[in-house]
Each structure stands twice: as structure tokens, then as C-alpha cells.
Amino acid sequence: MADIQLCALDQVPNGGALGLEATLQGQPAALIAVRWGEQVRVYRNRCPHFSIPLDYQPGLFCTYRNQLLMCAHHGAMFRFDNGDCIDGPCEGARLDSVRAYQQDGSLWLAEIQGANEKVHA
Known about the structure:
By secondary structure, the chain is an all-beta fold. The protein has one domain (4-120): Rieske [2Fe-2S] iron-sulphur domain (Rieske Iron-sulfur Protein, 3-layer Sandwich). Helices cover 0% and strands 44% of the residues. It has no helices and 12 strands. It has strands spanning 4-8, 17-24, 27-36, 39-44, 62-64, 68-70, 77-79, 85-87, 97-98, 100-103, 106-109, 119-120. Strand 2 (17-24) and strand 3 (27-36) form a beta hairpin. The protein starts with a strand and ends with a strand. The relative contact order is 0.25.
């Protein structure tokens, strides 16, 4: 099974976020890619506070100072670089990270997402 291409890297705005869809463990999964400069991280689009999406409308995300992602529902603030919640009702929690990498101007999901998790097209 091959890795999955998520999007072109330039689709993820610098200092911003892009909503994405993929299939993880045979189930549809809402994802979010955040970017600052050449760095990009991918997380599940799910706030650890109430397991609800982070976007205020599908695909529209709040970011702060090009380095923090804000949950539109309860104001929790998450660092782009590691998904840590640094302010809000779930302070100390973390977004679920999804293994991804950059290659040839694109953002890719790695085939294996942990010990027993595989990414499917």
C-alpha cells in the first residue's frame, strides 16, 4: 500500500490552516494541516475538550499570530508545532497528531499511522 497525497504544499496557507479528508483505519477522518514557513503538521480536526471539530464553518479555521490554532467553539489555543493546548478549557491536552511528510511540493500521509493503524485511499 502506498502513501496518500493530501494536497499541494502551497494549498496550506503560511501561518494558517487547511481542512483535509482522509481514510484512517478504514474510517473517514477530518484532518487539519497547519503551516508556519516551511514547517507543516497534520492533526485530526478534533478538539480534545468535547471531541468536536476545530473549524467554525467547514474548512474555516481561526489562527492567531501565525502560530496558534484556536478551537472556534470554546477558544482553546493549540500550538502549530506540537498540538499542545496552551490556553482554554483543555489546557495541557494535545491534538491527535497524524504522521505526514513533504515531498516534491506535496503533503503526504505516511502509510502506517502507528503500530496497528494504516492509511487507506
